[in-house]
Design a protein that fits this description.
By secondary structure, this protein is α/β, with parallel strands linked by helices. 34% of the residues lie in helices and 15% in strands. The protein is built from twelve helices and 13 strands. It has helices at residues 20-29, 47-54, 70-76, 95-100, 113-128, 131-140, 168-177, 194-197, 207-213, 233-238, 256-264, 304-323, and strands at 2-6, 34-38, 59-62, 82-85, 104-106, 160-164, 184-188, 203-204, 216-219, 244-247, 270-273, 293-295, 330-331. The strands form two sheets. Strands 8-7-6-9-10-11-12 form a seven-stranded parallel sheet, sandwiched between helices. Pfam families: 2-Hacid_dh, 2-Hacid_dh_C.
């Protein structure tokens, strides 16, 4: 009998009619050829527990918070044939080692594009219009009367928006921002994408040009060796003092020490982050002391519909891999 282990259920902040973890577990348990061992907690599975549980397994279903490295693969042994991750990002997987062992990988692209793009726009607006500061002023009695320049932020009308990474999510963000009256879109990446850019009349520019010319910058690229630390001191020094920076990709794309200095010194106006390094960010981190930095706990895909869809796709990827069939969404290694 083949064995599949689900590392832990996906987090759910509020009760929903159909919890993703319940749907996913039921989908796997209903298969006559599967024996399922599940980490039944919202907290990350300890490494020792994952090593124990994955030993001898034929399949592994994991989250982006579960690092699947050589140590875990060694613990799994030769039986492991498929890994299904409940994420679009795969930087938590040791892909070279996985490929070497002939293990197939399933992931969940596309299904979280809309939810993540919605969150990116929400975070951008929240940051540029200083909403957390405004809410706090209402609560602490700082709202005394109407004042001409009090809590003024920056608007999107007639602005230039730069997008780092015009992939599925980058395009979805641009599509949602266009009706706000954005005057010009810029983008950067590994190569020009003229067909995708045509919808927004977006211009392909170098990373330094994008930093220098944009009023708003949204980072939506994948984490790769080339993008790790991409947004650093040099990047922030090129940005306008009135520019707003948003990152919804991966925390390691940004040098957070350099970002702190840029925000604290007034080199840039504000930043909004849905991803950090590490996650969770320690409560004493310097970025959390800044009023002009809005930080969210990596909730880009956190809608009930999206998490349900992701869960079912991850389960179907795993089952297809165990059967030796084509996966609905396989990462080609």
């Amino acid at each position: 009998m083949q064995q599949a282990i689900e590392s832990r259920p996906p987090p759910e902040a509020h009760p929903a009619p159909h919890r993703p973890s319940l749907q996913l577990a039921a989908r796997l348990a209903a298969q006559p050829f599967c024996e399922v061992e599940q980490w039944d907690s919202d907290e990350p599975i300890p490494i020792k527990e994952l090593e124990r549980g994955v030993a001898g397994a034929h399949g592994l279903l994991c989250l982006l918070s579960d690092r699947v490295d050589k140590r875990i693969l060694d613990a799994a042994g030769a039986n492991l044939k498929v890994i299904s991750t409940l994420s679009v990002g795969v930087d938590h997987l040791a892909l070279d080692e996985i490929k070497k062992r002939g293990i197939r990988v399933g992931y969940t692209p596309d299904v979280l594009t809309d939810a993540t793009a919605e969150l990116a726009v929400s975070l951008l607006l929240t940051t540029c219009r200083r909403l957390p500061e405004a809410i706090e002023e209402v609560k602490n009695g700082g709202w005394t009367s109407w004042k001409p320049l009090w809590l003024c932020g920056y608007g999107l009308t007639q602005s230039t928006v730069g997008i780092v990474g015009l992939g599925r999510i980058g395009q979805a963000i641009a599509r949602r921002l266009k009706p706000f009256g954005v005057q010009r879109f810029l983008y950067t990446g590994r190569q020009p994408r003229p067909e995708e850019a045509a919808e927004f009349q977006a211009e392909f520019v170098s990373t330094p040009e994008l930093a220098a010319q944009s009023d708003f910058i949204v980072v939506a690229c994948s984490l790769t060796p080339a993008t790790k630390g991409l947004c650093n001191k040099d990047f922030f020094q090129k940005m306008k003092e009135t520019a707003v920076f948003v990152n919804i990709s991966r925390g390691d794309v940004v040098n957070q020490d350099d970002l702190y200095q840029a925000l604290a010194s007034g080199q840039i106006a504000a930043a909004g982050l849905d991803v950090t390094t590490p996650e969770p960010l320690p409560t004493n981190h310097p970025l959390l002391t800044l009023k002009n930095c809005v930080i969210l706990p990596h909730i880009g895909s956190a809608t009930h519909r999206t998490r349900n869809t992701m869960s079912m796709l991850a389960a179907n990827n795993l089952l297809a891999g165990l059967r030796g069939e084509p996966m609905p969404s396989e990462l080609m290694l």
